[in-house]
Every structure is written in C-alpha cells, then in structure tokens.
Amino acid sequence: MTRTALRETLVTLAIGAVGAALFWLIGFPAAVLTGPAAAVSAATLMGVPTLLPARLRDGVFLVIGVTIGSTVTPEVIATALSWPISLAVLVLTLVAVVVVAQAALIRGFGYDKMTALLCATPGHLSYVLTLSTDLNADVPRVALVQTVRVLLLTLAVPVLIALWGVEGTAYLTDYGAISPLALAATFPVALAVGWVFLRLNVPAALVLGGMAVSAIGHGTGLTPGAIPVWLQVGAFMCMGTLIGTRFRGFDPRGVWAALGAGVVTTIIACAVAAIGAVVASHLTGLPAAALLLAFAPGGVEVMAAIAVETGLEPALVAAHHVFRLLALTVMVPLMIARVRA
Predict the structure, then answer these.
(1) How many domains, the chain?
(2) Count H helices, E strands: the chain?
(3) Domain membership of residue 60 as a residue range
C-alpha cells in the first residue's frame, strides 16, 4: 500500500468512527453500521478522497460471514424447512419491485425503458452494470441510482425494524465467547472455502465461505462460542464505511439528480418488501421483521450485517439475499428480452 493510500484509508476510517459515535449518541438504529455509511458518504460527496483497501474489505466480508455462521443453531436449522415458501414469496416481490419501480422511473423521471429496468433491478450491482454497458444503457445513471438505493436501504431498514418494535432473538442464549484457538482455526479454513467460492463465481463468496465454515463448526460443537464483540463492531463500521466510499468518482451534481430516483425506488422496494414479509410470515410463521430484512434488496453483506447487529435471524437473512442474487441472474435477462421485444 502506498503512503497516499494509507493516509486516505486512515482518514476514511476516522470519519467512519466519528459517524458511528454520533449516531450512537443520538440513538440511531444500528449506529455502528449506519453512522459510518452516512458520514463517509457525505465526506466523499464533499470531495474527501475516501478509500477502503480490497484486502480490508475482504476481511470484513469474512468476519461478517463467520459471525452469521456462529448464530446457526438447531432451532435455525429446523425453521429452514419453511424457507422454500418464503423464497417463493421473495421471487414474487422481486418481480413486483422491478415492474413498479420501472414504471415510476419512466413516467416520473423520463428514463428510457432499458435504463429504467436496470435502475429498478433490486440488487446484483456488478452484474447489472455489466449488462448496462453491453446494452448501451446510461451506465453512470444506473450506477448512481443503484448506489443511492444501497445507501438509503442501509439507513432506512434499521429504522423500519426499530419502528416495528421487534427485538432480535439470535443472541438471547449465552454461549460464551469463542476460544482464541477455535477463532484462529476458523478463519484460515473460512478463507480457503471463500476462495474456492470466488473461483466458482458464487455470489458473496467470502461471506458464504465464512458462514459455511462457522455454521459447521458451531453446529458440530468444534468451535462453540460467540465471535468477540470488538471484531464484530470493527467489521460493521468498516462495512458502513465501504458503502460511503462507493460515491468516490461521481459528480455530486449527478448524485443529487439521481437522488430523487433513488428515493422513489427505495420507497417502492421497502413497501413491497414489507408486504411480502407480512404475507410470508403469515404462511410460514417466521418473524415478519426478519423477513423484512431478508426481502429488502440491499447489499448481501450489508443486510447480513444489519441482521447480526439487530439479532434478527442472520442465517435466514443471508440465505434469502444469496437466493435473490441467483434469482436475478436468471430473471434480468428475461426482462431485458421482454423490453427489447
């Protein structure tokens, strides 16, 4: 790492820490995640060169995955039998979000059909941007609207959960702290599995690698215990910071122009996710607040981090978000073909 990159990284992390502290002081939900996201986004848009190195980012993803896996219990495994029903409802909500948001962007903001479709797609940003380039869509506009959506969902979803008045249950049982030896053994194996997933082009590979290894270790009793709080908090702060750095390189005027479209698509996504969560909860008996978090189309790593922070069924949330990406991989080309027809 160059001296400039190191300086930018330290400044970025400091801004994130200040944001976390301020949001904690005012009592904002999931402050260690939402505070850095808001503060670093604002700093980036004001011209501060922000940076979170790729290796640190990957380490954060791994920690989040291991933390999610540590919440897997026999009770969680038992509830997984009802997940196919909620996954089917999730697919319906994805279609509804795209249809409604696309119509809103065309009629309310004058977007062409293809750009509106790609802006309305709820997630899978790298895949969507690749398609945008190939289809001659307005790539900067798609990138901006999608980035604004991720930021707004990161800030809005914890608030919605808090307003719902539901507390998580993931940490009600005291399992004690994981031993240093078990922790040291978990991460190299998780990294190796994550690397294999990366080679196989699996979505959220490092998160899933950490989750799989940790879940097996905790489920079999080989690596029992909770992940240290300091490690979780550090990962959440870096995750929020990473969201803010995504605005680097964007013209602030373009961001403001895309803000309205981002707000509208976020409202639509939250409304549809809430309806889907209530329906799926009625059909399966799963917690509605956890399903809201599972259905809200934010980033996989971000929504999983919020699930851990709030204690709302992290394994369920992560599984649904990975499935969302896989479903979009199939759905988006079909929707593009329909627009072209």
Answers:
(1) 1
(2) 15, 0
(3) 54-227+251-340
